[in-house]
Here is the input.
Amino acid sequence: MSTIPSDRSPESTLAFLREGYRFVGPRCDRLGSDIFQTRLLLEPTICLRGRPAAELFYDNERFVRRGAMPMRGQRTLVGVAGVQGLDGAAHRDRKAMFMSIMTPAAVHHLGQLFDDEWRARIPAWAESGPVVLYDEVARMLTRAVWAWAGVPLADADVPRRTAEMHAMIEGPAAVGPRYWRGVLGRRRAERWAGDAIKRVRSGALPAPEGSALRVIAGHRDEQGILLPRRIAAVELLNVLRPTVAVDRFVVFAALALHDHPHWRDRVRGDDAATESFVQEVRRYYPFFPVAAARVRRSFEWQGYAFPQGRRVLLDLYGTNHHPQLWPEPEQFRPERFDDWRGDPFGLVPQGGGDHFTGHRCAGEWITIELLKRAVGNLTGSMSYRVPPQDLALDLGRMPALPPSGLVVDGVRRTA
Here is the structure.
């Protein structure tokens, strides 16, 4: 049996936090291997990238998610005891709950709500001068997904709720104030989400049939028991927070249109070209850096031993940029998706495998729909300028975002 190549550093946590999306890939390149072992958070960890690695990683017979994500990620990003940390029957039951919300009609409805929000904001942008697209899109997504999910939201509360979602998203890979803002944001968000669950269950708050709030509040687990209120709150936030996080992808789409302006005419009014463009945005730009799991029981793969309980990280960004999967991976080329037939283990910006039985993001279809709506508005509903600003992406910062948030000015309605 072969020895897994090793990163010689005795502890790599600080390097991971410093290098971010570039932690795994360059080490694989130096070692000439898509697998290596290191130590993270003082624990032996196996790092993987590539399509065969993704297919292995999403094998539920070989890996579990329980105990894989560090507590700092649970205290900020995903919550404790949410669907991301479940396995077996409990995971299948909870995932089925989420997938019941993600019908084609529901996804289309959320897209329309976002579309309406965007078009309604154009006159205000035209009058206000420069606007930060990231901030504007975040608030639009907050209003749209709260309405779609059936969660009450006063206009005055939109900035606060958006800030809580952003704090949770920013927290896991941060140290100091940014991490503690994530912890505080989650505590506050779980408090009001739990209150909404309580009010729906008591009949004090009506929630539309089929809405996320109604489905989660009324869901009974595989044993027929209502979810504890705190866990129901966590799962409600697992619908709201990831949808707001699409604001980063929207900024990346606008950045791609700025850097590759010939695509503006190609996608305008062309659904197939827009689909290819959106998929390349999801492949090319940084979103989730890695996914974590633990070995269910010891096994051997490609001559390497995976001991029971070992933490394993799959490099999502590195897999989306693997040269064996994606020729010229550092080039932005949407046409690579023109004849793409789909590959659950090749394109993994939001996880891999099957949506219904595995740990692939239940909201992936929502992401694609919202991005297509955003591209349609950026190229068809408005004209604008992108003034000089810092648009460089620091891949050492997780999650990544242009420092300026992408400022636009000179906005005019065109349709």
